[in-house]
């Protein structure tokens, strides 16, 4: 028996189609064009590819988008000024600062994310939106975890009453994933680098989410037969893109599994588009 492969392409296409329909209504009935600004600092090649993909996805469905490229040598103050002007810009409903920031600016990350107007925070990284998520207000949810939840929902995979295990506790994936699964009545365990007996805990999962950033970390022995395995990892190994799950091994045990590439990564961008439209609706008090 082999696992059902949860291909991101079809799910992402569906989300984009729904989002485009909302955009068309906003334009036709309210004369509003949703706008996204993506700030990229420095020359990280992977970031440049992601940002170009986001820009293209916006154009495809009718979101106005601006890419603001700043040199790595830019000071924190210049970046904060740029964010302040985007906060005031009526054409812009979503603001995203691509991570990781250059090393020289890493210490300022919290201050920079804090400077984004929470109403325009389409990454869901601002402390106000993080706090809202913890109390069940899911207005602007980080795109990757939101994409994982959307995929489970669209695939008809039930969550309530299930054992869910999240491997990884980052602010952008692991922690929001915990809150989202808990809000849908899963029993959620979060594992991390200091967890003892991680394999035994992972093996209890009906839904296993791997977000550790270590290539092929999840092996067959860590997966309960029939489990749903969601691979959030994006790692480069020998020039190839691989996830956190040893796909070839695990697909023979799992009930369903997301591939890398071609899995939840594709939903990340789709959810960014959806968040931008949500932000535009809220800012203009539509719906
Ligand atoms: N402020 C901020 N927000 C982010 O959401 C953000 C970020 N910074 N920094 C980097 C990570 C990573 N990320 C991905 C987006 C799309 C794919 C994606 O489309 N993946 C495809 C193709 C990947 C490829 O071929 O390179 C796939 O998995 O099939 C992956 C990863 C967003 N991130």
Automatic annotation (TrEMBL):
<dbReference type="InterPro" id="IPR020630">
    <property type="entry name" value="THF_DH/CycHdrlase_cat_dom"/>
</dbReference>
<dbReference type="InterPro" id="IPR000672">
    <property type="entry name" value="THF_DH/CycHdrlase"/>
</dbReference>
<dbReference type="GO" id="GO:0006164">
    <property type="term" value="P:purine nucleotide biosynthetic process"/>
</dbReference>
<dbReference type="Pfam" id="PF00763">
    <property type="entry name" value="THF_DHG_CYH"/>
</dbReference>
<keyword id="KW-0486">Methionine biosynthesis</keyword>
<comment type="function">
    <text>Catalyzes the oxidation of 5,10-methylenetetrahydrofolate to 5,10-methenyltetrahydrofolate and then the hydrolysis of 5,10-methenyltetrahydrofolate to 10-formyltetrahydrofolate.</text>
</comment>
<keyword id="KW-0378">Hydrolase</keyword>
<keyword id="KW-0560">Oxidoreductase</keyword>
<protein>
    <recommendedName>
        <fullName>Bifunctional protein FolD</fullName>
        <ecNumber>1.5.1.5</ecNumber>
        <ecNumber>3.5.4.9</ecNumber>
    </recommendedName>
</protein>
<dbReference type="GO" id="GO:0005829">
    <property type="term" value="C:cytosol"/>
</dbReference>
<comment type="subunit">
    <text>Homodimer.</text>
</comment>
<keyword id="KW-0521">NADP</keyword>
<keyword id="KW-0028">Amino-acid biosynthesis</keyword>
<dbReference type="GO" id="GO:0009086">
    <property type="term" value="P:methionine biosynthetic process"/>
</dbReference>
<feature type="domain" description="Tetrahydrofolate dehydrogenase/cyclohydrolase catalytic">
    <location>
        <begin position="6"/>
        <end position="123"/>
    </location>
</feature>
<keyword id="KW-0658">Purine biosynthesis</keyword>
<comment type="pathway">
    <text>One-carbon metabolism; tetrahydrofolate interconversion.</text>
</comment>
<feature type="domain" description="Tetrahydrofolate dehydrogenase/cyclohydrolase NAD(P)-binding">
    <location>
        <begin position="142"/>
        <end position="281"/>
    </location>
</feature>
<dbReference type="InterPro" id="IPR020631">
    <property type="entry name" value="THF_DH/CycHdrlase_NAD-bd_dom"/>
</dbReference>
<dbReference type="GO" id="GO:0004488">
    <property type="term" value="F:methylenetetrahydrofolate dehydrogenase (NADP+) activity"/>
</dbReference>
<dbReference type="InterPro" id="IPR036291">
    <property type="entry name" value="NAD(P)-bd_dom_sf"/>
</dbReference>
<dbReference type="GO" id="GO:0035999">
    <property type="term" value="P:tetrahydrofolate interconversion"/>
</dbReference>
<dbReference type="Pfam" id="PF02882">
    <property type="entry name" value="THF_DHG_CYH_C"/>
</dbReference>
<keyword id="KW-0368">Histidine biosynthesis</keyword>
<keyword id="KW-0554">One-carbon metabolism</keyword>
<feature type="binding site">
    <location>
        <begin position="168"/>
        <end position="170"/>
    </location>
    <ligand>
        <name>NADP(+)</name>
    </ligand>
</feature>
<dbReference type="GO" id="GO:0000105">
    <property type="term" value="P:L-histidine biosynthetic process"/>
</dbReference>
<comment type="similarity">
    <text>Belongs to the tetrahydrofolate dehydrogenase/cyclohydrolase family.</text>
</comment>
<keyword id="KW-0511">Multifunctional enzyme</keyword>
<dbReference type="GO" id="GO:0004477">
    <property type="term" value="F:methenyltetrahydrofolate cyclohydrolase activity"/>
</dbReference>
<feature type="binding site">
    <location>
        <position position="234"/>
    </location>
    <ligand>
        <name>NADP(+)</name>
    </ligand>
</feature>
<dbReference type="InterPro" id="IPR046346">
    <property type="entry name" value="Aminoacid_DH-like_N_sf"/>
</dbReference>
